[in-house]
Design goal:
This protein is of the alpha/beta class. The protein has two domains: 7-18 and 110-236, Rossmann fold (3-Layer(aba) Sandwich), CATH 3.40.50; 20-107. 53% of the residues lie in helices and 13% in strands. It is built from eleven helices and eight strands.
Amino acid sequence: MPILPSFILFDLDDTILDYTASGRRCWQELCHSYGPRLGLDPEQLLAALQQTSHWYWSDPERHRLGRMNLKSARRQMLRLTLDRLGLDCQDPGQEMADAFTVQREEVVSPFPGAIAALQDFREQGVKMALITNGASESQRNKIQRFGLAGYFEVIVIEGEFGVGKPDLSVFRHALDRLGAAPRLAWMVGDDLERDIQPAQQLGLWTVWVDNDGSGLRAGSPVRPDEWISSLAELSSHFG
């Protein structure tokens, strides 16, 4: 790994905050709670929901619209899931989706050592930007809840900026605000298509956060310059 740069751009969800894995745990708990009420085996409900979720988020345009209104997106997914299972139980389905929205935000938390890593980089003089997709309110709430704003010179949120990653203008804007040339900056994120690939197009050094240890897919067209399991691991290289 090269020497610590002067500038680093960070993603938020699944890079600093444990978001996806904690969400899966929420769905598991809710399926066990609501499955019997719907006359369904909890595992059957969970499997159907996972299929719907994969379909829903696999489309870039649905992803873009859904992440801007997660409450509505979750209601749509529950409705589609129950339709797939041949059930007309929209009231419990909507209740379950809304319960997920509440519980989801309650359980999200930073990865172990992530905040300490940001502090370490800041103490070493690194200028940092946070670039995150999603609605302004939800992302600002997380930033405030975990006291993240003080670590970053620049914060770029899709709902405020107008477009999100992988649009190159997001990265260019963050770099311009930092006063950083791409060759002097890193991009650290978990999403190969939205974080790593566009950053490489602009000439940043890229660090992929493989937080679930799944590794690169066979034949992946995106090859990060480095990959790590956590920000704590990254920080340890420069401690």
